[in-house]
Amino acid sequence: MKEWIITNIGFEKFILIYSYFVLIYSLISLCAYFFYYDNLIIRLVFGIGQIITLLGYIYLENLEKHYNNKKLE
After folding, report:
1. Per-residue model confidence (pLDDT) at position 11
2. What is the band of 7 on the pLDDT scale with cuts at 50, 70, 90?
């Protein structure tokens, strides 16, 4: 499934789409963190979302290294 996404969309476009998603999600979570600071559930939901986006970035960095190594071969 991952190879299908990357080959049909293209790796650069895939990273661009994911980066925009992370940027929008980060802005929303920052606003929610400041405006609903006293609501623990909202803070937990957006905190878990931030952890997921961080793991996604780590995954994409490893995927990019693999992609660049394949490109050089």
Report:
1. 67
2. low
Instruction: Give how far the C-alpha of residue 44 lies from the chain's centroid of Cα atoms, to the nearest Å.
Output: 18
The set of residues, in sequence order, having a beta carbon less than 8 Å from that of 22 and lying 6+ positions away, is 53, 56, 57
- Amino acid found at 27: L
Cα separation, 5 vs 1, whole angstroms: 6
Q: Provide CB contacts within 8 A for 50, sequence distance 6+.
A: 26, 29
Question: Which among 70, 58, 67, 66 is positioned nearest to 18, based on CA atoms?
Answer: 58
C-alpha span between 32 and 48 (Å, rounded): 13
Distance CA 62, CA 49 (A): 20
Check whether 45 has a pLDDT greater than 80.
no
Assigned token pair, 68: 């660049």
